Amino acid sequence: MWDRKRQIIWLGAGVVFGTFFIYPLAYDESQRFDWQYFAQLEALLLLIITVMFYIYSRKK
Fold it and tell me: What pLDDT sits at residue 17?
């Protein structure tokens, strides 16, 4: 069952854990934070979550 409550929980957990793992990747060799690279990775994460939501929400 893929109801609204589970969708919200998965969305929240996906964004939080995804950001947790993406954040350290946005630092370059000189330990400076690259906001543009972080935004690109975050957009990719949200795209993946959106596609997964579409696939799991389809009616069979």
Answer: 92
